[in-house]
Amino acid sequence: MEAIEQLERTAVSACCLTTRDEPMSRHTTFRIGGPADLFVVAHTYEALCAILQEAGRLALPVMTIGKGSNLLVGDGGIRGCVVSLAGDFENIHLRNGNEVVAGAGTSLAGLCNFAKKWQLSGLEFAWGIPGSVGGAAFMNAGAYGGEMKDVVRTVVYAGADGVKRSVEGEKLRFAYRHSVFMDEGGVLCSVTFQLRPGNTDQIAALMEDYYSRRKAKQPLNKPSAGSVFKRPEGHFAGTLIEQCGLKGCAIGGAMVSEKHAGFIVNRGGATCEDVLRLIEHIQQVVAQQTGVHLECEVKAVGERRK
């Protein structure tokens, strides 16, 4: 653990908050996950740069997290360092009239409210998605016909060497629940959104409409990671799962939501192993009964077993 101690010293000297053996269940919307060797909250780019460079020198893996949605952390936890972005990474400002620049640690709720305040439209679909700006851009999050690719113009990120770079346009390689960063890595620092002028009341009404639909159809009152599976071509994952009679199916503390079959919820005491076994069971049953393979959308990280 000498390398972890060295990295922690670097983080502390950069004015970061650090915790050893931090339970990741505290940082995921699933409320599942074993301990991270080192958990760091970075407030500035300079601090993030120092952490990335020192981790590289020590050959320690570094993972960044946003708000912990769409994430399943193994019961054995995460080796190396987990970085959460706060402070400067939560700033939002206007640029060139219709552009909004948001730090990667900004919540999507905060971003949507900022856009509404300045009468800028285009982000209404993101209202109610429990994630961060960085996480949403990383996976090209979307809902109700909208996606991040529709509004993201530029992403500034830090490479493993701690050097800040930017990428824009087609080079972002956005596709369904995919971006260039899923292939090539990088820690997202900020995202520039190109929006359009709108009316505050109309923006607010559309945001409320989308949220009402979520509340009516999704199990928002139970811990989950969001939609578990990507939408298979020509189908809806939740519909296929329900048609296969899997609503309410449970393994351990993990259960297919009785409200929306596309969600797995933590009904109390669920482990990562429970969720993974349930995912595998769902995939097997749906494939056998419909011939459709369901691809997992939730990102599984860390060591599977304690």
From TrEMBL:
<comment type="similarity">
    <text>Belongs to the MurB family.</text>
</comment>
<dbReference type="Pfam" id="PF02873">
    <property type="entry name" value="MurB_C"/>
</dbReference>
<comment type="function">
    <text>Cell wall formation.</text>
</comment>
<dbReference type="InterPro" id="IPR016166">
    <property type="entry name" value="FAD-bd_PCMH"/>
</dbReference>
<comment type="pathway">
    <text>Cell wall biogenesis; peptidoglycan biosynthesis.</text>
</comment>
<dbReference type="GO" id="GO:0009252">
    <property type="term" value="P:peptidoglycan biosynthetic process"/>
</dbReference>
<dbReference type="GO" id="GO:0005829">
    <property type="term" value="C:cytosol"/>
</dbReference>
<keyword id="KW-0133">Cell shape</keyword>
<dbReference type="GO" id="GO:0051301">
    <property type="term" value="P:cell division"/>
</dbReference>
<keyword id="KW-0131">Cell cycle</keyword>
<dbReference type="InterPro" id="IPR016169">
    <property type="entry name" value="FAD-bd_PCMH_sub2"/>
</dbReference>
<keyword id="KW-0963">Cytoplasm</keyword>
<dbReference type="InterPro" id="IPR016167">
    <property type="entry name" value="FAD-bd_PCMH_sub1"/>
</dbReference>
<keyword id="KW-0521">NADP</keyword>
<dbReference type="Pfam" id="PF01565">
    <property type="entry name" value="FAD_binding_4"/>
</dbReference>
<feature type="active site">
    <location>
        <position position="297"/>
    </location>
</feature>
<keyword id="KW-0274">FAD</keyword>
<protein>
    <recommendedName>
        <fullName>UDP-N-acetylenolpyruvoylglucosamine reductase</fullName>
        <ecNumber>1.3.1.98</ecNumber>
    </recommendedName>
</protein>
<keyword id="KW-0132">Cell division</keyword>
<keyword id="KW-0573">Peptidoglycan synthesis</keyword>
<dbReference type="InterPro" id="IPR036318">
    <property type="entry name" value="FAD-bd_PCMH-like_sf"/>
</dbReference>
<dbReference type="InterPro" id="IPR006094">
    <property type="entry name" value="Oxid_FAD_bind_N"/>
</dbReference>
<dbReference type="GO" id="GO:0008762">
    <property type="term" value="F:UDP-N-acetylmuramate dehydrogenase activity"/>
</dbReference>
<dbReference type="InterPro" id="IPR036635">
    <property type="entry name" value="MurB_C_sf"/>
</dbReference>
<keyword id="KW-0560">Oxidoreductase</keyword>
<dbReference type="GO" id="GO:0071555">
    <property type="term" value="P:cell wall organization"/>
</dbReference>
<keyword id="KW-0961">Cell wall biogenesis/degradation</keyword>
<feature type="active site">
    <location>
        <position position="177"/>
    </location>
</feature>
<dbReference type="GO" id="GO:0008360">
    <property type="term" value="P:regulation of cell shape"/>
</dbReference>
<feature type="domain" description="FAD-binding PCMH-type">
    <location>
        <begin position="31"/>
        <end position="198"/>
    </location>
</feature>
<feature type="active site" description="Proton donor">
    <location>
        <position position="227"/>
    </location>
</feature>
<dbReference type="InterPro" id="IPR011601">
    <property type="entry name" value="MurB_C"/>
</dbReference>
<keyword id="KW-0285">Flavoprotein</keyword>
<dbReference type="InterPro" id="IPR003170">
    <property type="entry name" value="MurB"/>
</dbReference>
<dbReference type="GO" id="GO:0071949">
    <property type="term" value="F:FAD binding"/>
</dbReference>
